[in-house]
Structure formats: structure tokens, C-alpha cells
Amino acid sequence: MNPSSEVTALKGVGRDLATKLAEMDIVTISDVLEHVPFRYDDFVTGSLTEAIHEDKVKFTGQVQSEPLVRYYGKGKNRLTFRLLVEERYSVTVTMFNRAFYKAQLKLGEEVTVSGKWDLHRMTISATELQFGAIEGELTPVYSLKGDMRMKTFRRVVELAFAAVESVGERVPDSIRTAYRLLDRMTMLKALHFPTHRKELTAARRSYVYEECLYFQLKLQTLRLGKRQGQGIVLPLHQAAVDEFIAGLPFPLTGAQKRVTEEILSDMHRAERMNRLLQGDVGSGKTVIAAIALFATIRANKQGALMVPTEILAEQHASSLAPLLEPFGIKVGLLTSSVKGKARVLLLEALRQGEIDILVGTHALIQDTVVFKDLHLVITDEQHRFGVEQRKRLRAKAAQADVLYMTATPIPRTLAISVFGDMDVSIIDEMPAGRKEIETYWAKPEQIERVFGFVEKELLLGRQAYVITPLIEESESLDVQNAMELHAVLVERFRDNQVGLMHGRLGSSEKDEVMQDFKDNQVQVLVSTTVVEVGVNVPNASIIVIYDAERFGLAQLHQLRGRVGRGDAQSYCILIADPSSDTGKERIKTMTETNDGFKLAEKDLELRGSGNFFGTEQSGLPRFVLTDPALDIQIMETARNDAVRLLRSEAFWQTSDYDVLRHYIEEQGLLDGERIE
Ligand code: ADP
Ligand code: MG
């Protein structure tokens, strides 16, 4: 059967199942084959007598007792029955919300159950039940959507493999031979039904290489294509820029000087600038933006600064204006609250070139916003924008230079391989005289002392953040929630105003709370992590983070960066009762260093990039099986291969590379438009 046939062509897949598959974007048989497991459960299968307490186990046995079902709470139920294992041991099996098995489990029936083993009670809390005996030791686990059941999906995969004889190769033979990669059918089969670890490792390696190669082909096509042209040379008025820098309220740090040079020389070159500026929180990225904007305006062009939230837009506008306006540069602010006449006037001034720099949220990319001659686009906290928004912003000025600023520290090797189409500048030095934030770890039972400490800071006229992971009480999690804590703190800090901020507030409500905090109308701000990255309230000197072990290092570091922005000594108190070793390690690491890059590397070491970067945190592309941090060598190999291929005659002219070439053509990568 042809892999591109629809799933309904498989015997055993009817309309209903096809609909459920479609919800998972699975339409063709090939889609089924490509939906590879994201992990494998590796059960201890040996003998029951060897099973260790609390281990994951998998036993086959005969149903020995009539299953019992107990119903409780909102439609919940528990199924219990006894299983005779190894013809000798009677084991209790419990399963939650699987009442439907009751009718199917006949006495004497052979079943295999897997789950957690309780040695003392001779009980297995099963999460899965299969009819029949054990097949392999590695059970594939798929990510599923909607009503799809794991078992059903596994059956569909089996049907798909039974129906299809071969699939097209995606990696050219020459490369596959050179690296001893598996052919595609063998690879997919091994990923879905690995018989042992070694086979899985080989399959995974082949898959990751393929994924990296395609990713790098895209990236390098963009990068090499970009090098070839367009963009314009911005006349650089070095003397004026020097004067501007000399007039700043502080001398630039060495790192700031270096990145300034990198950026200015990009702007002065014929190619479009496409640069990522990374600098830890507080490292002084805003002033770099100001310098680049200044140089742009001196060359008679306009600039735009796009940020993710209105608060940040206002903050940037009000920190840029005093730096730039003395030079006759007009800074405009466009947010959704600029309405009616004011908006019309602002937009008109922009079109006429009377406004030099426009700061705003994604409102900047609306069609009604027309620049006279936009030449520099800066985005702050770039990961917060969708690709589509960034593309539209770029489209506003085809030749404009683009600078992305981010505080997410991405280790250099990773940045180069994954943001390979961008140049990367790093500010790796803090302004002199900045006081290190002191970070402490407190146990939950020490909370009253922590409050006492907060109180002292409040008495000094400072402000405090109190961060919790949850908005409201959760049934399943025993962690602090913002609402409850807010109520507690209102009582505790009666002499002060205590504000509450969380993701369920509308954006104008959030802005209002934030503004009150900035204006010191509110002294204690209880918040979930929605407290914006980049928010600058220099008078806040203490941040208390509840259930700190629940946060990743990157997030803890971002949160900590909310304080230490003024002259006062600042403090970060992590309240944690870490039961896991990584939790402990993370909290300890936080107390030991303030360096975001060091933390990033530590976090990669502890958890791998998948966790560190979170989902929308980093703007890193999504991969199926590749972990850009752990698979860095394969990524680098693929990058070199991609560059070599793209530069070779053979790639463009021989049929060996048809698949790859078609891919590049299909992606529309050759028409000069850069995409991520
Ligand atoms: P971030 O990189 O987090 O965006 P900011 O640009 O907001 O950092 O800078 C943080 C603070 O440091 C600001 O108050 C800014 O004025 C100040 N700052 C920036 N550069 C220097 C410097 N070279 N020396 C002293 N203070 C600086
Ligand atoms: Mg900033």
C-alpha cells in the first residue's frame, strides 16, 4: 500500500477512528508512521520475586477474582482484582477510572498489567492493562490528543506497518552510508517497536541526524542567501555616535562597547543586519538599543522598538526619551490605549517622518502603521513574539536591519548551532558597582522569619514581590496559590498595600496593577509568574518565591532579575522544601551564582534543553526527537554537511540530492525571504 494513502485505507480504521486521528493531524498512513513515540517505558519484567518496592513493573498473570469497582467523588472509580502471577503469587491489581474493564476481565483470562509495585501490600497500581502476555520490554509512549487511547493508537501503528512495504528515503545514500545510518523503514520500525535499547539508540541517531540535516538546510539556505545581498549601507556618523555615547550618564562596560561595535558595523555593511543580542537581566541592553537607534536617526532613517507588553512599551519609551530627545530625536509611543484623534495624529507624524522612533507592542505591525523610511527594527524579549509577527514587522521595511534582544541566556555553542542564521552578540559583563543580589534558601516553616525580613525592607521604604506558582487552590497540588496568599499577606502587612497579579486578569487590569506597583501605590505585589520579563521597578529590593523547587533555573533567574535594579542591596528568598535531588541542586545553584550563563549551563547539565528552554520561553525551534543541547554534536555535523552541500555543484545538479533540493524549493527558501 502507498504510504500516502489515507488512514481509512487500512483495514480496521473506520470513520470514527480516522476523525480522532485527524485531530492529531494524522491523515495519511505515512503520518502514522511519522508519529514516533516520545518516550518508552522500560519495565522491570523479570521475576516477581526480584521486583523492588516502588519500581515500575510489568507482570503477566491470570485473573483470579471477579473485578470489583468502587465509585467515589465526581465520576471517579477504582477497579480492583487479583492476579495470579507465575502460577504462585496472588497479587492485587488496582486501576483508577477503568471500570469498563470489569466486563472484559474473565476469570482465568491472561492479562499483562504495568505500573508501580508496592512490595509490602503485594499490590500493583496499574496504569496499563493488555490482554495476553508480554511482548517486548520497551513500551512506546506516544503523545496523543482528544479521545485517542494509547492502545488504539498502537494498534493503528501496527496496522500501518503491516500495510506498507517501504517509505521514501530522506537522507541521500552517500551520507547514510558514510555515517552508517539506518534506512528509513528500518529506522521507523525500530522507533515504534524497539526490541532492545541498542536498536533504539541506532534508530534515534538516524532520526536525529535527519531532523538536524533538514533544519540546517533551511537555516543555512537562509543564511547563505542573506549574505548575497540586499540591504543598504547606512552612512555612519561615527563622531556623532561617539558624542552620544560620551553623553550617557555612565560609561559603557567593555561588553557593551564590544556589542555596540558589532552592531554598528553590521549596520554599516551592505547586508541586512540580522543579529541576536543576548544579555543577562540588568546587563544594560536598552542603552545599546538607544545607540543603534541614534545612529539610525543620524542617518536620516526611522527606527522601531517592539516589545511584548504595553507596560514594557511605556517603560522603554520613557527610558529612551530622556536619552534621545536632547538630540532633537522624537520618540513616539503606540499602544492600544492611544486612541482616536491622538492615534491619527501620531500615525500621521510617523508617516511624515516627524516621529523618528516608534515604540510599541505588536500594534506596530498593523497595516495602518506606515513609516516614512524605517531602517532599524529592534525587538526586545524576542521569544515572546510569534514568527508571523516578526515576519510582518520585517516586511514593513524590506531592507531594514533587525536586532533581536533577549535576556534568555543561551549557551554559545547552542546559539550558534540553532540560531545559525543570526549573528550573535553577548553582553557578558554587568555594569560596575552593581550589588550582587543575595539569594537565600528558606524552609517553609521559616516563613514567619521571611515575612519579618520583608517587613524590614518595607520599613526602609522599599517594595517586595511575592511569587507563587498557582493562581488558585488546586486539588492535586499542595502548593501556594496567589489568591490565598494575597489574603494572608493583606492581613500580615496591614501598614502597606498588597496587590495581586495573575494571568487571569485582563491585560488592562494587569497593566493597572503593575502601574500601581511602579508608582509605589502598592508595596507588596503577590503574583504568579506573569510578572513581566524586563519589568523595571528599581525600588523593589526583595523577591520571595514560594515553592521554588517547582520552577526551572531559567525562570528563577528571570524572576530574581526583577530586583537588584536600583542602588539598594537586594534579596531573593527561595522557599523550598525540595524532595527531589534536582530540586535541591537547582536551589543550591541559585544561591551560589548570579550569572545567567552559568545557570543556563548548569541547567542544561541537570535537565537537558527541553526543560530549560520551556516551550515559548526561548524561541528555539521545536524538534521531534532532537534535543538541541544534548545532540549538539549531531547538530554540528549536520550544519557542516548542509553548508558543504549547498555550496557544492553536485547538490544543485545531480539527482542524488533531489529530495533535499525539493525540500528547499518547497519551503520557499530561495526567493530571498528569510523565515524561521
Ligand atoms: P536589561 O539588559 O535587563 O534590559 P537595562 O537596559 O534595563 O537592562 O539596564 C539596567 C539598568 O542598568 C538601567 O537602570 C540602566 O540605566 C543601567 N545601566 C546600563 N548600562 C550601564 C552602565 N554601563 N553603567 C551603569 N549602569 C548601567
Ligand atoms: Mg530590558
Automatic annotation (TrEMBL):
Q: Which SUPFAM superfamilies match?
A: Nucleic acid-binding proteins, P-loop containing nucleoside triphosphate hydrolases
User: Keywords in UniProt for this one?
Assistant: ATP-binding, DNA damage, DNA recombination, DNA repair, DNA-binding, Helicase, Hydrolase, Isomerase, Nucleotide-binding
Q: Which reaction does it catalyse?
A: ATP + H2O = ADP + phosphate + H(+); Couples ATP hydrolysis with the unwinding of duplex DNA by translocating in the 3'-5' direction
Q: Which InterPro entries match?
A: ATP-dep_DNA_helicase_RecG, DEAD/DEAH_box_helicase_dom, Helicase_ATP-bd, Helicase_C-like, NA-bd_OB-fold, P-loop_NTPase, RecG/Mfd, RecG_dom3_C
Domain Helicase C-terminal, chain residue ranges per copy: 446-605
Which SMART domains does this entry report, sorted A to Z? DEXDc, HELICc
Record CDD domains: DEXHc_RecG, RecG_wedge_OBF, SF2_C_RecG
Q: Which family does it belong to?
A: Belongs to the helicase family. RecG subfamily.
NCBIfam families noted in UniProt: PRK10917.1-3, PRK10917.2-2, recG
Primary role: Plays a critical role in recombination and DNA repair. Helps process Holliday junction intermediates to mature products by catalyzing branch migration. Has replication fork regression activity, unwinds stalled or blocked replication forks to make a HJ that can be resolved. Has a DNA unwinding activity characteristic of a DNA helicase with 3'-5' polarity.
What is the protein name stated in its UniProt record? ATP-dependent DNA helicase RecG
UniProt source species: Exiguobacterium oxidotolerans
Task: Cite the source lineage.
Answer: Bacteria, Bacillati, Bacillota, Bacilli, Bacillales
